[in-house]
């Protein structure tokens, strides 16, 4: 029988017997745990030598003797000679030192589990009857995949004291376009403060007792002012809760994430940001539009459509080598087109408006600066939408199936 233990090796002496590739691979794991590693081997591989030099490790360049294992917390032997490894295991048994015998793991007094990690959670897999590293590895990988996608319960028991806030960029909407870290933090959350846009479907996967607070905004309607959202994040964290602020796109791209981070820092609340796939790139991509393309567009200018066009925006709209991407700009489309034409942009400059990108209702309206206001009105274009101005929006540059792009006009 085997008992699985969580053993801290930080600052403790670990003797690694052998200098080959197996020993080199295991060395990294011990170093990650903060062990004080001593290598015993007459010669070492290039990989092992590089690791010894990089981490300034002690290397005893001779054959192993019994005295090498005395005083160690753990010994790992992988000399490639089963007889030598058996002798090392016997010396460890005699001196009451745990030993991993890589020649025959079932004959050592210790074994390394196949590990996967998610945040501060470590899951190890091993069997008690014989050694089957491939099976353990397959099971570890399966559990690791579930941890990464947030399908397993990772929440900790809430403790007294201050909690923390994580701003998570959810991307354009599909749950499987979220980052691994974002999914994990959602699985650990006590409270989720969510926007209207983004991967709202992931909220259905949360544990039943996770509180979800909807602070979503829509054009012209901000039921929860930003100042109140800031206060809410701080007060929840001060109550000892782990808070995820779930946003569509990326928190720092017109997501007011900077304001929320500043509020947390001013209140002494731990805060971190997880980037998300911004709609600046991902929504045009869903319609087959590359925001840069060799020989067509060499740069991107990103605009908040609710703001008055700046000089840099006017210059970008007039520059045939620049793609201008406009967020939150449907209502301001006539003003934007007028500004572009006055800045010298030609009437035949291509324009594409991608509504509800990466959803089943995605639709793309293709037009030109001269006709886009009329075409958008005829199509009933509405938010959420991303407007792309530039030659990358040409219909003949479409880089996906037109049916998948959801084109309404060409």
SSE topology:
Layout: E1 13-17, H1 21-32, E2 36-40, H2 46-55, E3 58-60, E4 74-77, H3 82-94, E5 98-101, E6 114-118, E7 121-125, H4 133-148, E8 164-169, H5 180-188, E9 191-194, E10 211-214, H6 226-238, E11 242-247, H7 257-266, E12 271-274, H8 279-286, E13 299-304, H9 311-318, E14 322-327, H10 333-342, E15 350-355, E16 363-368, H11 372-379, E17 385-389, H12 402-405, E18 407-409
Parallel strand pairs: 1-2, 1-4, 2-3, 4-5, 8-11, 8-12, 9-10, 9-11, 13-14, 16-18
Antiparallel strand pairs: 6-7, 14-17, 15-16, 15-17
Helix pairs in contact: 6-7
Count of strand segments: 18
Integer-rounded radius of gyration: 29 Å
Share of residues in strands? 15-25%
Mean pLDDT across the residues is: 89
Q: What sort of overall outline do the alpha carbons produce when their principal axes are compared? A: elongated
- Helicity range: 25-40%
Instruction: Give me the secondary-structure category.
Output: alpha/beta
Summarize the biggest pleated sheet.
6 strands, mixed
* Low confidence ranges: none
Number of helix segments?
A: 12
Strand ordering within the main sheet: 13-14-17-15-16-18
N-end to C-end Cα span = 70 Å
Spell out the helices and strands N to C: EHEHEEHEEEHEHEEHEHEHEHEHEEHEHE
